[in-house]
Amino acid sequence: MRNFKTNKKVKITLILFFNITFLLSGYFNWPIQFSINAFSILVILHFLKNDNLYYKLLLLISPVLYCILTIIDKNYHTIPISISPFLFLFIHEFLFKKIKNNWFLFIVFFLTSLLCYVFMLWWLDYYFNKDNYQLINSKLPYFETISSNNLSNELFSKNDTIKVIDCWTTNCGNCIIGFSKYSEIQDIYTNKKVKFYTLNFPIRRDSIIRTKKILSENYDRGNNLFAKDINSIDLLKITAVPLYIIVKNGEILYFGNTNVEQKLFQIDLCDKIDKLLN
User: Fold this and answer.
1) Last residue of some domain: 97, 129, 161?
2) Structure confidence at residue 249 (pLDDT)
3) What CATH number corresponds to the domain at position 235?
């Protein structure tokens, strides 16, 4: 172990590994990304614990870049991912550095990464839904939309039909991937008093032709609405998509952000619909 720690090439390899892993972990959803980075930096810091602080600070290259991009893009919901390496470096210097039992340390590392996963779920749920909660049990605000088959009047009409709205934008990959699952859910309620819609919010350089083309390639339903103005998002207090809204009797009853946990999307949405039907 002594040679392993004093080998300069190994140190540089570990540092490069973490910085590359930190950036590539964005392939996973945010809670998993947070956990992977927390676990990997704690393990690597353990191997570097007897080294100068200089080596450990090199681990923060990617987190610093990520933090800058987060602030520039205003993706404040991912701030915990960028600041966690700073936090764990501080904790390591004053706590883990003094612990010699390797098995105990790895158990602590594992539990820490698990807690990070749970914390990130809580944080995302709070961040995405804190403003939406203010609209629960309030009237669905009116905004102009483009649609076919008189869908706009149908959406804003007050009746006891349950209306599910899938909100999306053309630059949201998860929104487009989620269309197939959303389509499957609709097949479950074909004979129920439930109506499903997609609602697109236009972004810069969008055109209705391009938006409809993306829909035609990924979604084969005719229940599509297109907001005329991006400011409609402000009326609905939407901070991120994909997001679905459940409306009944003209009132908003539920917001659900599918970015929090994609795998739970169908279970969660179907559970809410079933409760309203019963």
Assistant:
1) 129
2) 93
3) 3.40.30.10
Structure tokens at 162: 């349950």
Three-state secondary structure call for residue 177: helix
Query: What are the average pLDDT values for consecutive 10-residue runs of the chain, which has 278 residues?
Result: 59 89 81 88 83 85 91 83 88 75 79 88 76 83 87 90 93 87 91 92 86 92 91 83 90 75 66 88
Domain that holds residue 267: 132-277
Please report the pLDDT score of residue 4 as a whole number: 44
Phi then psi dihedrals of residue 165, to 5 deg: -115, 120
Q: Give the end of a domain, one of 98, 114, 129.
A: 129
In Å, what is the CA distance from 257 to each residue of 91, 182, 242?
A: 33, 13, 6
Question: If we measure between CA atoms, which residue out of 222, 128, 212 comes closest to residue 170?
Answer: 212
**Distance of alpha carbon 270 from alpha carbon 214, whole angstroms:** 26
**Strand-by-strand arrangement of the 243-248 sheet:** 145-147, 224-227, 194-200, 162-168, 243-248, 251-257
3-class DSSP state of 219: coil
